[in-house]
Amino acid sequence: MNPILHTIVVGILSYLILIIVLRVSGKRTLSKWNAFDFVTTIALGSILATALTSTQVSLAQSITAFVVIVMLQFVITFFSVRSRGVLKLIKSQPTLLLFRGQYCCDAMQRERVAKTEIMAAIREKGMADVEKVHAVVLETDGSFSVIGSAGDHDSALEGVDGLPGQ
């Protein structure tokens, strides 16, 4: 088959099959990225690129590779929700960056987060006074959670690295 025609045919079929495999695999495959999701996405992209540009790799091999990567992702996430050890292996722990209006400088330095990034997250939440912010957490996917006010307990902060008293 002509290499250009091969790229067009395999490209269209691979793309459609990848969409079907991702839809069947569930929402978790398309969630916000952590390191594990990043690796999975890069692997899928690499498989698609190889399928598009290599006449040495058959469509069946590409589909098999898609399914293998998505199945590995499914198996690992299946065990991660059932095993704390597996979860720790693939996901980092959320980190407290600001608590009761005070910056957690050691955590900020360790996580390589600048004060300006925390202030931007606070502004994004529509808050103007840093001292009135109860907490800012760097989540496992790299996003910031801003908690404006607290009740009697910090239960939403359970498991967050750097929470006083843990």
From TrEMBL:
InterPro entries: DUF421, UPF0702_alpha/beta_dom_sf, YetF_N. It is found in: Cell membrane. Keywords: Cell membrane, Membrane, Transmembrane, Transmembrane helix. GO terms for cellular component: plasma membrane. Residues 83-150 form the YetF C-terminal domain. It is a multi-pass membrane protein. Residues 12-78 form the YetF-like N-terminal transmembrane domain. Transmembrane segments: none annotated. It comes from the Bacteria. The keyword Transport does not apply. Its main location: membrane. The keyword RNA-binding does not apply. Pfam families: DUF421, YetF_N. Belongs to the UPF0702 family. This is Uncharacterized protein.
